[in-house]
Design goal:
The structure is a homotetramer of 424-residue chains.
Chain A: H1 4-31, H2 36-45, E1 49-51, H3 74-88, E2 93-95, E3 97-98, H4 105-115, E4 118-119, E5 122-124, H5 147-167, E6 171-174, E7 179-180, H6 188-204, E8 211-215, E9 225-226, H7 231-241, E10 245-250, H8 260-269, E11 273-278, H9 295-307, E12 317-320, H10 329-348, H11 352-360, H12 364-376, H13 380-390, H14 396-403, H15 405-412
Parallel strand pairs in A: 1-2, 2-4, 3-5, 5-6, 6-8, 8-10, 10-11, 11-12
Antiparallel strand pairs in A: 7-9
Chain lengths: 424, 424, 424, 424
């Protein structure tokens, strides 16, 4: 871990400038009728879950280029997640992935408590074959034509719930790779019937206070069709299953040019928005750092979330889901958590009264300007001040680099080998 | 009209070759266990509706380049539709568009009877302003923020139903241009609530034996968001309205790369496939001739339709919807109707028993080959023989050209002027 | 026109706040080693051309919904352009479109001088048929199969040059709609040979101190192929023609997901970037207001331009090209000009030394952050101060609305009628 | 291997039907003025290279699900390639990938001679790190910022040439993963300068009778920018390097909706089409079986190739490049080779005289129909007869399955383990 002293020392050097910039921003917002302290308080209360798999270096089917000091166990991963939260104060929970992170629940809980981390939604994995596995998922899992494969996949999900209960999770996230690579390979209707049948069995095993999130994706690893290809199918699933089932939106899982913020609005309207996997993308499911490609799109998603904040029972889960192929994953996750906070803060300062008026009057230009004005506002001082007041770092990346955490764990952890990706 | 004698004379020259090719194909299919006569009978019984607006030359926002002898009234248009059906025997119904085609219902019925044409779904138009119109649709119609605009649009749809009843239509098709061009211009949720409210009023006025088709489209004429942007939203509408409401799928209204045949399967599975607007596209809503760009995709759609043929009550409406910018619209519509028949015939000869087996066994390669084998089969002789036996043309385009129908109507109809499109 | 007094009065009310915000921003930038005054000076010196056709309400193939007080002549249009420049000080030139704007050159020059406006690149139009025209462009213009059509199109371009010389233009912009709607309709190679042959004839008539810009576009109005479909073909044209020929990049003319800023970099590197048509888009050539959909993409383009500022002879033309379907065109053009200035200012404050270092070290995260930091900076006070010091409006839209310019010209100008678009 | 007797026995059962269908097709083509024997001869003379890596089961970043009897060495792979050619007679050459296939050249040549296989273009690999490698390609190879990495990558390519010379290859294919994942990570211009500099060093080492193929790709494994992102950049490379450098077109490496056949035509026109990597795709670089998703697009590419057949010196390389994730790779490669032959045969029977006339007259409908007519023709009997006469299998997949080749090698080859893909 980084340590309070180190953080405090780094903050001390930056605090005066921060206070000046915070005050200047406060004055600007005050002229717009916005109380900067209230915004800061909401930002400070915001938390997003980190995916355990995100702290390892990601790769593509072509190659994986590991960095130094990669985590080799879930406990290493939790250490890294602890650093992220220690420095940013923005990531109080970790989302586990089973079987990658399978371990003694008591040990997981103890480690989480040690680091001040809780456990978010648990993720099942039926898109890979494990060494000890009886049946293969090569041709599908929950929607496979053969009953024994589907049963195995259902059982795995029930196992995940069981593990999750023991560590304090409250939700299960299902994403499957089921689909097809050739027209004709699957019967779309029968495949989806089988998926629904399996999902119903999992839902039947869901504790009363849990939620079930299903995730859609247009393509990859299947390249002609995907059984849960879009929000339309995802909505059907959530409706068929019941009240505790809802849809997870991953920002990179849509067809090119699709208006994602509108999908978010529709799911909210019909009570089926379960949560998010945040990341950014330019081409496909690129899993790039959140806000790195199109930050305005991220803001527009948060604009919908803030707009819906008063909807009774509205409480979507927020998680990051990224692949860090060329950066230190800890740095990327810290920055991404802060980008999400930034979008949230910007959405909070939208003048919603004015916006509603412009919408009513069809004043498209001023409605657009109202959003742009909030988006243009550099809310960095708000985020920094929220961190400072929590004892976290004003500049998490700089503080992290100065600590040489990575160098230290590199000395302790086994060297991770280069991977060839899936093509060979 | 072309005339039975002219058609018969043209057919006579081609008949011997056709019979030879039909017999050769019959032998090929017989070896696959398929009775060519049974396929021919189904093809002969198939009909698709022609859009009245399709017989005029289309255009873009940049320009419209009219051809000679353009129809100037709905009665001219019906004449052209009559020619299409006379030559192909494949287009027994015309789909009207109001107010473009508004006329005395008795006159429409009389003209239809004269030409052997019935009337398919009627289309309302609330995406343009008409000269006499009280309120403008500039900022929307069924979902407009102002009640009087929505009422006007609802009234127009009820008027369309009324007209449709008098001419024998049994369905109303609603497509609106409502959406937005700027983030923030509309509140997605409130806009959709207003849309649903208006649609419910129309549905309330729907005769018991009518169906209501709603059409989704990802973009154009709105370029940031569209109120019915995809099949997910379209499904919500159909579900909210009731049993007689269902979804119309236009093949060009989807995001790039989207798997359309899978959407078709989903809507069938959930009882909400209302019908089609057939056309083809490469980039956006290009409205190109059906089957001209990706004929295999068209076949895959028909593969789903034939697969679902035994679903009780399954009876989607089939319509063409194209923009003929560089061809004689009569020729394009004839060819397109035949392309749809071709895809239907190809889908009929898929070996569904074998396909189901390969799907069950996850034999992806042979499943694909089973579809490809049917698609590769040149079913032209079946289509031609079906036409010959109906007294229609073996080669409709050649017979049409030989008749100089276009030259004759060009002498009688007023000259249509070049249009500048919407940009000036 | 709006009038200096009205502007000054409006500015007076806002000046104190502006000075406070400008000073606060100056302090922030100073801590980064940036002199705000130097940035302001560059922004003040920046100008972008307004398209004459942009001041009329645009439309789609479905409809055009005109606003009140539409300009009916080029002189009306110049008045509107004058207002834009009077209020923003950012649009010193107008780009004419012939034949839409054809008029007595002396009158144009006189009007321009009266308004303080010059004339930018002149645009030819061979994508529409004009009433008096001998041959039709239905099947192409510069690349048409028939020699007389190509000659007519070449002549028209030479006429545009002639007109342009008389009014002080220094460049010709060619965009054609030539392409095809069906596979097979054109022979790609022969069509492009004909295009090049025609373009060479135009280039031969280009004055020594002129430049020729050719514009590529992936689709629309042709929907299967376009003769200048992408920057690759555009580059071939510029190379074949000669040194004074270069490529125009319209931000909405690319395939989905294409990295436009990289195309800009390539064209700069190979000496063939002629200029820009700025706008924004989500789906196709949506012609939305610049920066309204993806402002970070606009910034990334300007990042390339500032990066290349020292390349000898580097002087791309900057023009707006938008379709204003739901806003007052004057307002949209003012805002868009300011969005371009904003992106320019943000690109100016990128720490290029640091960026180069991070690139050299493959520190992807910090390189990204270096750009994001500049982008996040709200440079509005710089833009406002530049305007204030020029005697232009701190808030151009508010000042424009307060002036009721639109209401006044609506009383004087003929009412523009609703258009049906190209589809009927 | 399968064995002549087994093939002959299988053919015997199918020969009578084939002869009947061949004769019937011959009669059809004869009526169109086409000599079926001449088409058959050209098809029989056509060969396409198989990629050595294609005979192993492919995977994605999520997982790889190996099949039974996977090849474990290049000699196993050559055995599998031998089977493909034995059965289809369509794949006389293998394209090696180094270092995956690195081996004693004399052994490779001997094995090739034993199997009747030659060696096509050799492929270098600088997108993965090898165990013994000094410098990492994590941040690029030919375009890396550090000279020692670029040198290592250049050296590797020179090594590939050296190996290729010894086994009879005549071309080097370069595809790199270089690019970036974040805006700002690389300087586009300097990165491309470095790429060109490295490529020039490789070109300098190219034997006089060799060709250099460079391959472009829009994204993956880099997700924000790719150094050779499209054919425009690829063309610049080929032009900068010299006459023996040309562009390789992989059908799956383009932005969505891009007109690939037009790119092919442009590269032919400017003398820079080097060859193809054939496959099919729906979303991205899906590497699906050739012709499985959009067979008409494949035909349109071959239409350009046949159109250009008389261009002096025109001799593009034809290779397959696919990832077989859910099929037996031998079956997929056989089918894909036959799909390419099919597209070639269909393109050969296009009535080019008629097509040229329709193009000249702008008869778009009949031009389209001329292509469609050839495409609709089921040329299967031509392909089958060409195989029968060569002693290859009428039905390669059925004959292969009956031989149980896969079962036999599964007994001999080591079991391949499931792969986790690049993500963990």
């Amino acid at each position: 871990m980084i340590g309070k002293d180190r953080i405090a020392a780094a903050n001390e050097a930056a605090e005066a400038d921060l206070r000046a910039e915070y005050d200047a921003l406060g004055a600007v917002l005050d002229r717009r009728g916005i109380d900067i302290a209230a915004v800061k308080e909401k930002v400070a209360g915001y938390g997003i879950a980190v995916p355990s798999w995100g702290v390892g270096t990601g790769g593509t089917r072509f190659a994986r280029f590991p960095g130094a000091g990669e985590p080799s166990t879930i406990f290493d991963k939790l250490d890294d997640c602890g650093v992220i939260h220690e420095l940013t104060g923005a990531t109080p929970r970790v989302s586990l992935h089973v079987p990658w992170d399978d371990a003694n629940p008591a040990d997981l809980v103890a480690k989480g408590e040690e680091l001040g981390l809780g456990f978010d939604a648990i993720n099942s994995n039926t898109f890979q074959d494990q060494a000890e596995q009886a049946a293969s998922y090569k041709f599908g899992s929950l929607s496979h034509t053969r009953e024994e494969v589907r049963s195995q996949a259902v059982e795995h999900n029930l196992y995940c719930i069981e593990l999750g209960r023991k560590i304090g999770s409250r939700a299960l996230t299902i994403w499957v790779g089921d689909g097809s690579n050739f027209p004709g390979q699957v019967n779309f209707t029968r495949q989806f019937e089988r998926y629904l049948d399996s999902a119903r069995q999992i839902y039947a095993g869901l504790p009363e206070d849990w939620r079930l999130f299903t995730e859609h994706k247009i393509f990859e690893p299947a390249f002609y069709s995907t059984v849960v290809q879009d929000w339309g199918t995802n909505y059907l699933i959530a409706t068929e299953l019941g009240d505790r089932a809802s849809c997870l939106v991953d920002l990179g899982h849509h067809a090119p040019t699709v208006n994602i913020e509108m999908i978010v609005a529709r799911l909210i309207q019909f009570g089926k928005l379960g949560g998010f996997h945040f990341n950014d993308s330019k081409y496909g499911d690129d899993d790039l750092d959140t806000g790195s490609i199109d930050p305005y799109r991220l803001f527009l998603v948060f604009n919908e979330l803030v707009e819906a904040a008063d909807v009774p029972g509205f409480d979507p889960a927020h998680m990051l889901d990224q692949s860090h192929n060329v950066t230190d994953p800890i740095e990327s996750l810290m920055n991404s958590a802060m980008e999400v906070q930034r979008a949230y803060a910007q959405a909070l300062i939208v003048d919603r009264g004015a916006l509603g008026g412009f919408q009513e009057e069809n004043d498209a230009l001023m409605a657009s300007e109202t959003l742009k004005r909030a988006f243009r506002t550099d809310v960095t001082p708000i985020l920094q001040m929220a961190r400072l007041e929590k004892g976290c770092a004003i500049d998490p990346v700089a503080t992290y680099r100065a600590s040489d955490y990575r160098g230290k764990v590199a000395d302790e952890r086994p060297v991770s080998t280069s991977g060839g990706g899936g093509i060979v």
